[in-house]
Amino acid sequence: MTKNFGSKSSKKFHCEICDYITARKSQFDRHNLTLKHISTKNTKKIASKNEYDLEKVLHCFSCHCGKKYKHQSSLWNHRQKCVCEKEEKEKQEEKEKEKEKEKEKEKEKETKKEVVNTLSCEVLVDLFKEMLKNQNEQMLELFKNGIGNTTNSHNVTNKNKFNLNFFLNEQCKDAMNIMDFVSTLQVQLSDLERVGELGYVKGISHIVANGLKDLDVCKRPIHCSDLKRETMYVKDENVWEKDESKVKLSKMIKHVAHKNQKQINAWQQENPEYNDSESIKSEKFLKIVGESMSGLTNDDDAEQCTNKIIKNIAKEVTIKED
Fold this sequence. Notes:
Elements: E1 13-15, E2 20-22, H1 25-32, H2 35-58, E3 61-62, E4 68-69, H3 72-81, H4 83-118, H5 121-145, H6 158-171, H7 178-184, H8 189-198, H9 200-213, E5 222-226, E6 231-236, E7 239-242, H10 247-261, H11 264-270, H12 280-294, H13 300-316
Antiparallel strand pairs: 1-2, 3-4, 5-6, 6-7
């Protein structure tokens, strides 16, 4: 560094690095080129850099709160008490939890997409065909073993026998046959949605019960003479018979459930957004399909569903004795 002293005539040049003073510019320039000046200058630069590096080393362990320490152990002890560090740790843990939640949501979305893609229209059609085939085979077997052996079951007490026979064969002689009732039953998309919302048993019970309520009492193809024992009488092929094994009622229920199930394709056309796994319609579609099919299998659960529906129907068609 150069410093000037005095007037222009007594101008002096001062090298602070070497503490060298001269009045001549030429001598000052010559001094700056000397080995002594260059060596001293470089030495001071190195010393300055070393001081900076030492400062970095001495404060290399720092906390989020801004404090710095020479040793890692000192930083560790500080972090056990530091409020900022605890808050930072809690924030980090919260971030990790959020990440896990996001991962779970993504997995759920992927699962929904897979389910919806699997339940494509072609798969549903094939499944319906297979279930209908099994249903028809089961019905044929039931008719072979059951209906042929059905006997006239009007063996009740004399008083009830007279009243019931008169009611069925005289007052209800123009009642519909049970399968004609099924054929005329109008199943709406709202019925299909109700099955998805309330479940197979309540949904199908509602369809049948509403259809019966729309008919005059004497036009109904089903009557219950004893609610406690679920004694059911059904008109089939123009004849009133006691449905001992509930074969005719089971057949009717399966046909109604199948009519309801056939509405799925129309529902899909009216609700195209069902194919979007993230939409509410997608969840609704899965419930509709699951519940509509639950009672059409050939297992014990399906039989239990049918029995529950018969119980619900019996409540609606119990004969009220005047």
